Amino acid sequence: MNITKKIILNTNNDKPNSRVIIKQGCIDTITLIVTINDKGGVLELPTGTTAKVRMLKSDKKQVLNDCEVVGNNVHVDITQQMQAVAGEGQCEVILFNSGKTFTTVTFPITIEANVHDDSQIESTPEYNTLINSLIRIEDAIPQAEEAYMVAQEAESTLETLLETEEA
């Protein structure tokens, strides 16, 4: 499963035309497709252009990741570390070609917090639900074994009746 979100960045430092919101816990599923506009048209990215994304997370920790250049777009994979902290992070794309460097306008990515803390999963009611389900399964085993024996007896009786009719 891969979800793509498109964003347009302008070389004249206008803010992006859409807000990027990522929900925590979307691991290896979201790719930003970044198009860079220059004077109203798409910026042509020459062959051999490479890209990186730089992010300052809301906790002031930094991320620097490689990106993929596809045609005139930059594909930014949202990594687990990029969404580790809820809040608003600041990103920019850096392009490299023939010894030249271009950095885009800064754009925000809002990381929306989960509704619960995943580190607390062991102590949630769902754990008890799992135990209760296992107990119900254990209680059902003798009933299933008894039903199997009744079915075997019924099959044996049916075979006897069929043999009697044939004779």
Properties at a glance:
alpha+beta; 39% strand
Task: Describe the 3D structure.
- The protein has 1 helix and 10 strands.
- By secondary structure, the chain is an alpha+beta fold.
- Strands 1, 2, 3, 4, 5, 6, 7, 8, 9 and 10 form a 10-stranded mixed sheet that branches.
- A hairpin with a 2-residue loop joins strand 6 (62-70) and strand 7 (73-77).
- It starts with a strand and ends with a helix.
- 17% of the residues are buried.
- Residues 120-128 have low confidence and may be disordered.
How large is the share of residues in beta strands?
35-45%
SSE string: EEEEEEEEEEH
Mean pLDDT value: 85
Q: Radius of gyration, rounded?
A: 29 Å
DSSP E strands, number: 10
Largest sheet: 10 strands, mixed
Provide the structure class.
alpha+beta
Contiguous low-pLDDT stretches (5 residues minimum) are 120-128
DSSP summary: helix tally: 1
Distance between the first and last residues' Cα: 63 Å
Helical coverage, percent range? 25-40%
Shape annotation? elongated
What is this structure, in a nutshell?
With 167 residues, the protein is of the alpha+beta class. It has one helix at residues 125-166, and strands spanning 3-10, 20-23, 30-38, 41-42, 50-56, 62-70, 73-77, 87-97, 100-103, 107-112. Mean pLDDT is 85; it is low at 120-128.
Secondary structure topology:
Blueprint (H helix, E strand, L loop, with lengths): L2 E8 L9 E4 L6 E9 L2 E2 L7 E7 L5 E9 L2 E5 L9 E11 L2 E4 L3 E6 L12 H42 L1
Parallel strand pairs: 1-3, 2-10
Antiparallel strand pairs: 3-4, 3-7, 5-6, 5-8, 6-7, 8-9, 8-10
